[in-house]
Automatic annotation (TrEMBL), chains A, B:
<dbReference type="Pfam" id="PF17931">
    <property type="entry name" value="TetR_C_23"/>
</dbReference>
<keyword id="KW-0238">DNA-binding</keyword>
<feature type="DNA-binding region" description="H-T-H motif">
    <location>
        <begin position="40"/>
        <end position="59"/>
    </location>
</feature>
<dbReference type="InterPro" id="IPR001647">
    <property type="entry name" value="HTH_TetR"/>
</dbReference>
<dbReference type="InterPro" id="IPR036271">
    <property type="entry name" value="Tet_transcr_reg_TetR-rel_C_sf"/>
</dbReference>
<dbReference type="Pfam" id="PF00440">
    <property type="entry name" value="TetR_N"/>
</dbReference>
<dbReference type="InterPro" id="IPR009057">
    <property type="entry name" value="Homeodomain-like_sf"/>
</dbReference>
<dbReference type="InterPro" id="IPR041673">
    <property type="entry name" value="TetR_C_23"/>
</dbReference>
<protein>
    <submittedName>
        <fullName>TetR family transcriptional regulator</fullName>
    </submittedName>
</protein>
<feature type="domain" description="HTH tetR-type">
    <location>
        <begin position="17"/>
        <end position="77"/>
    </location>
</feature>
<dbReference type="InterPro" id="IPR050109">
    <property type="entry name" value="HTH-type_TetR-like_transc_reg"/>
</dbReference>
Length: 230, 230
């Protein structure tokens, strides 16, 4: 199937690449429109008008296509966050941008979120967000939070806090997404409120890291949160 | 099948009750030994030497048997925690007792924890710990945390903190159990360490609730945590 009748070997490559891109596009649309459970390799092959074997050649399983979805969502997240980050140097405002644009990307999937969660939550699942298979997508979001922290001007937090902060923020993002799956309020407004309250609290707490009395408990708290993700 | 040959109607009831108890016992043992996925109504019926129909008469589905398991685990938890609670009036020590005896009850299930989590994590699942179906088991653990807080002598925390504390503590218990599912360290030692660090932090933070400067942010933090569970 991947031997071509064309003489030019670049044509061969291009055809395979085109097939792969078509399968990927159909799968991403299917996850958005049908969810996780109803999306099957067979259905994707059918809609791309190629064989199941060809589909498996490009994507060994449905979960490999979920990884494409994760990457797609995180790249859209980065594309939405970065222009907004360029406009602010306040740390809390920058974190608000990353968290809010992250929720925006999840929104279209809310109806299917429980089935994605069931499939992804097991530590043995290859589509668990913390699995080795999901590392490329997780790195995008880790990079975004590091960028949000590093690009803040006049950051009020001591260096000892700066190091574990991105890990703690990524864990916060995963827990916020977990809360969002359970959120039945219109437009998941409760999740937005929870985020706003969390950010307000962080704004109150960060200057306290300079008080000697509080430095130890706050440092403990941050280390505790960061250690959970590690 | 439920009409008896015996004349005495109490015999009928007793036989039905005995069948129910036998099915329940076999199911609880099966969940402990085989896990969630491999336990089926058919298998339980077979081992109890009754028909699948009889089994369904007593327990409409496998998930009804999981609710029996939840209750069994929480009642064992209460039985383990209460004698220890009687021996201490320090708030943090009392919380340590409830959290530690809770983890003790989970320990035998660790090998099967990922499959229980996958089945229970969806907000649509009837065995989700926060579902209406799971309310009786959740009430046992809520009662335990309330007891731990209310029975503490010379509690250092103002009344405004006392009210939302049990809800926040139950949420902490659920999140600790989530972390425990992911914990691959021998004997889930990392979960115990996380718990110890969390309790140490709580011991540092509680006296701070009396400082006017910190009362607002700490109250905010507690309300935030409690609002997640509500």
């Amino acid at each position: 199937m991947f031997s071509s009748d064309a003489a030019d070997p670049t044509t061969v490559l291009t055809k395979s690449e085109r097939t792969r891109a078509a399968l990927r596009g159909i799968a991403l649309r299917s996850f958005r429109e049908r969810g996780y459970d109803a999306t099957t390799i067979r259905l994707i092959a059918q809609e791309a008008d190629v064989s199941v074997g060809t589909t498996h050649y490009h994507f060994a399983s449905k979960n490999h296509l979920v990884q494409e979805l994760y990457l797609d969502v995180q790249e859209r997240h980065r594309d939405a966050a970065e222009p907004a980050l360029a406009a602010s140097t306040d740390l809390i405002d920058r974190l608000a941008i990353v968290y809010r644009t992250g929720l925006d990307q999840l929104t279209p999937f809310h109806a299917f979120a429980p089935e994605f969660l069931s499939a992804a939550v097991s530590p043995r699942s290859p589509i668990n967000p913390l699995s080795p298979e999901s590392a490329p997508a997780l790195q995008v979001i880790e990079g975004l939070f590091r960028e949000a922290v590093d690009g803040a001007a006049g950051a009020p937090l001591p260096d000892e806090f700066r190091a574990s902060l991105p890990d703690a923020l990524v864990l916060g993002h995963l827990l916020l997404a977990l809360f969002w799956v359970y959120d039945r309020s219109p437009g998941q407004q409760r999740t937005r409120t929870l985020l706003d309250r969390g950010l307000r609290l962080l704004r109150l707490a960060l200057p306290l890291t300079r008080l000697p009395l509080l430095r130890t408990p706050l440092r403990e708290l941050l280390d505790l949160v960061a250690s959970v993700k590690a």
